[in-house]
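Try this one yourself first.
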């Protein structure tokens, strides 16, 4: 009877060792796959998303179009000249058209400035996210270590 129990214990012990070995190997494999993903695929995806976001900002503010049409009238509002020359109507149209061009200029300059500021802030935020992403695994290990120390202290 004693040998059957020992044999049964040895069998259970062997199965337990295999199970622990398999779990250990799976954890190592998962950790390795995470590190490979984190520093290859994820970084490529972050760069792609960042490029898409910069393209979005560039197109939503339409900086080249606004720069090309910097001195045009605002929404084409203004006075049209008649074929008959009248000095009062001429100066009235000149004044209204000049004011509309000034309004268009200031609105377009404001939008261009806001667009450039948005792009600069997006670049700075992208750099910060990229640097943070590089250190996330180390930060996670540090947080885990501090948590274990605090639990057992």
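Now uncover the answer:
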């Amino acid at each position: 009877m004693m040998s059957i129990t020992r044999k049964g214990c040895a069998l259970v012990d062997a199965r337990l060792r295999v199970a622990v070995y398999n779990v250990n190997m799976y954890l190592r494999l998962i950790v390795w796959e995470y590190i490979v993903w984190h520093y290859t695929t994820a970084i490529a995806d972050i760069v792609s998303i960042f490029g898409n976001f910069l393209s979005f900002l560039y197109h939503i503010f339409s900086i080249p179009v606004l720069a090309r049409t910097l001195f045009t009238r605002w929404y084409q509002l203004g006075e049209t000249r008649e074929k008959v020359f009248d000095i009062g109507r001429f100066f009235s149209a000149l004044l209204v058209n000049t004011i509309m061009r000034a309004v268009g200029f200031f609105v377009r300059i404001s939008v261009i400035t806001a667009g450039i500021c948005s792009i600069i802030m997006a670049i700075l935020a992208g750099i910060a996210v990229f640097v943070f992403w590089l250190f996330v695994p180390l930060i996670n290990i540090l947080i885990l270590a501090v948590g274990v120390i605090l639990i057992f202290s």
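Discussion: The mean pLDDT is 83. Residues 75 and 104 are 8 Å apart (CA to CA).
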